[in-house]
Model the fold of this input.
Amino acid sequence: MEGKRVADGSAFQPDIPCSVYRLQHKRFRVSAVTKDSAKSSSESDEKIPSWARPDSDEPPPWARDEGKDGSSKQGFEVPFYVYLLASAITAIAAIGSIFEYANQKPVFGVLSSDSVFYTPLLGFFAFTGIPTSAFLWFKSVQAANKASEEQDRRDGYM
Done:
């Protein structure tokens, strides 16, 4: 099977002269202008936010607070993942205290099960640890929601 390689090297066409191949692959574009497409650019500019226009000096919403001083914040806020981590550790300690009491294992290898402080200490960990863990989890959800709303406000969604 014999053929000719097209001049641009893109295809191998059998028995088709190069000039015929080029003529077959030309593409024509058809454009149409309607009345709606001839509207003034001011109507289409209404859809574009003011910060996105080429002649605007206004920064985008996510960059508006970058140049401001940090003095407007009223203190340090604990990130949500710190609350979440503390909640998980507290829950593990509380449940572990219940298992240690049920199996009569020494607390941290120091306080044996025949000590007078064994039951009150494990009871304190178990009965205060579970509600504390629930509270810390609730605080982590609140902190995450607050951070999300702040980011949405900076991005211009609120």
